[in-house]
Amino acid sequence: MADRQPGVREVLLVAAVAVIVVLAAAALTAVLPTGVQAVVFHTPLLILVLLGGTAFVLWRILHAPHA
Asked: Structural domain boundaries of the chain?
């Protein structure tokens, strides 16, 4: 596979997927029972999810095959 930078199409696709994921998370949170919403909004759950996601992305970058 040739080394190339992502084009506009790829960038827009990633952006669209990110927007869809955020909107789906907001919709899912809105339909959760009040007790579960309290856990989501009043605990460090989001921070843990962000830390886990960041660690996963960094792990994938470090273990990506090199050309």
From this structure: 8-62
